[in-house]
Amino acid sequence: MGGFEMAEIIWKDRKRIFFGLPWTFTKYSLSEDRLFISTGFFSVKEDEVRLYRIMDVSLERKLWQRMCGLGTIKCCSADKTMGDFEIKNIKKSREVKEMLSNMVEDERTKKKVSSREFMDHERDEFDDYDDHDTY
Question: Which of 24, 34, 51, 117 has its CA 20 to 30 A from that of 80?
Answer without folding.
Answer: 24
